[in-house]
Amino acid sequence: MTLERFDELVARGIDAVPARFQGKLRNVAILIAHEPTDEQLMSVGIDPASGDTLLGLYEGVSNLEGGHTHRDFPDRITIFMNPTLEEAESEDDVAQVVTDTIRHEIAHHFGMDEWEVERAEKKEK
């Protein structure tokens, strides 16, 4: 899959975010990277030598921690292309993984920890 096509799927995933949340993402940049850096892996407790990876990462100050106030730099959600492509078997799967990852990372932006996000995701299914 080309980066351009992946970017289109990320844009589609962003568009799938409910409108009531979209307006609250004004200071959140959603980026694409090929792979997480070692620093990004370590920031969530993953040893870079383990072979484990990330599909996405929220970096910022959640709304619960005062993220709603003005700051010079936006929070970031990074979607990692290569791990996503490894996770998915088809383009439809890529689209679903991207959409799920964006929703997961946005939940972190709104202050949910990993356990709360996983619990909410189970309720949706």
What is the H-and-E element order? HHEHEEHHH
CATH topology tier name = Zincin-like
Rg calc: 14 Å
Helicity level, as a percent range? 40-55%
How would you sum up this structure in a few lines?
This protein is α+β, with helices and mostly antiparallel strands and 125 residues long. The chain has helices at 3-15, 19-22, 38-43, 81-87, 91-109, 114-124; strands at residues 28-33, 56-59, 75-80. The chain has a three-stranded mixed β-sheet.
Protein described:
The chain is an alpha+beta fold and 125 residues long. It has one domain: Zincin-like. The protein contains 6 helices and 3 strands. The protein has helices at residues 3-15, 19-22, 38-43, 81-87, 91-109, 114-124; strands spanning 28-33, 56-59, 75-80. It has a 3-stranded mixed sheet. It is globular. The relative contact order is 0.20. The mean pLDDT is 87.
Write the layout of secondary structure elements.
Blueprint: H1 3-15, H2 19-22, E1 28-33, H3 38-43, E2 56-59, E3 75-80, H4 81-87, H5 91-109, H6 114-124
Parallel strand pairs: 1-3
Antiparallel strand pairs: 2-3
Helix pairs in contact: 1-5
Keywords:
6 helices, globular, alpha+beta, Zincin-like, 3-stranded mixed β-sheet, 48% helix, 125 residues, single chain
